[in-house]
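fold-stage: in
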Amino acid sequence: MVSPPPSASRRKPTAKPASGPGRPKDLGKRAAILEAAKQLFAREGFNGVSMDQIAAEAGVSKLTVYSHFGDKDALFAAAVQAKCEEMLPDALFEIELKGSLRDQLKAIAQAFFALITSEEAISTHRMMMVPGNIDDKLKQTFWEAGPQRTHDAFAALLQAQVAKGELDIPDVATASVQFFTLIKGEVHARMTCGLCGQPRPADVGRHIDATVDMFLRAYGRR
């Protein structure tokens, strides 16, 4: 057998590339962290939850949590956005959906009502209302990740329908606020105050039908 040249026999094996911070994140771990954060923030409040608790609940290390989200504020914002995207997916606001505009508005209203009356949303709303519970920066983070995202998406849909001649709305931003305020109705306030539980599906259906019809009477093409 021919021996390799001396230089080849002493050649060191090629080193594997080091795993750095730029490597792809584990999406399964990210999802587990988000789910743990959603549950814990809703149950314990922002100040009542530590990154250690979230890591333990998700079954990952605290370092992994920080690697994915940076800090607790960013994780809170991501958890709020994830909850909104889960219950109010972007597909609901697509402009060229099949079916009538009324059906699309009803679908958005139903998803929004289910979101705001969920246990997590009610708990988060109560947490946000306690003076001194969280700082103004975090409140703004919550608003941008949740309500503002929804209002912007709906306003864009309304503007597209105005351009198509389906709606007549002089100010789509105001109309968006009006729509979601009407959908909240009295029930959301009563639930937040602990005065009632989940409404009956039949009552929710009647409320949404009446609200969508009122909105279309105000802004529908004449």
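fold-stage: in (second)
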Amino acid sequence: MAILQSLSDISNYPADNYSFYSDSLTVLQALSSLHHHSHPLAFSILYLHDRLVCKGFSILLCWVPSHVGISGNEIADTAAKNVSAVLVNPIPLKDFKHYINLTLHSIWANHWNSQSVNKLRSIKPVVEPWPTLTNRKEDTIITRLRVGHTRYTHRHLLIEEQVPMCTQCNCTMSIFHMLSECPNINYLRLRYFQSSAISLTDLLGKTPHVHLLPF
């Protein structure tokens, strides 16, 4: 926005040599590699730049590192922000969609963080995409283990049976109990995981344990 306004300002002066210094490397790179997905402001800047060049202006755009605390730089930043606040420009659809996605993701993450009795959250504390397995059947098994809902542990809800119990530990059978807790199958954990004490995060995290399915 500051570059666009500066070009607009010099258009009122005689053609001459002008140099603009910006600490926004991203903007300068965007101007040097324009494509059809570029920001609309980049097109506006280059259009005005080309018009001025055709009128005899010589314009040089330079990048300088940001220098916080230097009075001249602070004054320039303040002026640029003031111009941005005054000028009214339509928001590009791409920026608007990006803002909506960030807002929805933030709401989703806050809701996810507020869950205290969610089995999946104990394994996946952060809202982010996880890779899927190439084998659909194996991916389905891993997903059911992660959410803690399997035919064995939850069938009783459908056919009105008694809750499955671990006779060794005298407790309700669950995915956590079977994979990490029950001492009756410690020998299997040692065989497949080389440990009798292993967490669900290690077994069912972003990259499932390689020996989980054989177990």
